[in-house]
Design brief:
The protein is α+β, with helices and mostly antiparallel strands. Helices cover 34% and strands 29% of the residues. It starts with a strand and ends with a helix.
Length: 180
């Protein structure tokens, strides 16, 4: 998969990362939180923060520990929530780490690791475009029609329990200031 872009659900104002299959015209929309959208967009646009943000910090720590991010995989869609894993390698051993899909994508971008999605996720949730020459206007128009038909609730629990992974996270800087 490649990151095709980040957009916003105009109704719910929720960010959506759009992944595209490398070999076909299939697109996977994943609703994400605002902090993760900002982290993904920052790297896509080549911007840097004066101090490491959370995903940068994680990748920096892994690098210092001689741990390589091998790949990230969107593994399943369960109860309207995408699940992912981050595969890391150290001393020849691989380890799968459970992750939110948005965090896995933000880490992959920073670690220059490939992004995959399970076939079952693609079959169940991807939008497909026919033909080899797909123009971008057609993709954008179809994506807008898709957004008109669905809402963030289609991909998240209607009532999110406190602390659930789909609940938007507070701004990291505000959270840290509150704790001081």
């Amino acid at each position: 998969m490649v990151i095709y872009g980040v957009s916003f659900d105009l109704v719910g104002k929720q960010p959506i990362v759009l992944l595209k299959t490398a070999e076909a015209n299939k697109f996977l929309p994943i609703w994400i939180g605002h902090p993760e959208a900002a982290a993904i967009l920052m790297k896509l646009q080549g911007a840097t923060a004066p101090r490491p943000l959370t995903h940068d910090l994680l990748v920096n720590i892994l690098g210092e520990l001689d741990v390589e991010v091998v790949r990230v995989t969107v593994t399943e869609l369960r109860e309207n929530t995408f699940y992912a894993s981050i595969t890391v390698q150290q001393n020849g051993s691989e380890l799968e780490i459970d992750s939110r899909s948005s965090d896995a994508i933000a880490v992959a971008i920073r670690a220059h690791a490939p992004i995959y999605a399970a076939d079952s996720v693609i079959e169940e949730s991807a939008i497909e475009f026919e033909g080899e020459d797909v123009n971008e206007e057609e993709i954008v128009d179809e994506f807008k029609r898709f957004l008109d038909r669905v809402s963030a609730e289609d991909f998240a629990e209607a009532e999110v329990e406190e602390g659930d992974e789909e609940q938007p996270e507070p701004d990291e800087d505000e959270d840290e200031d509150d704790q001081l």
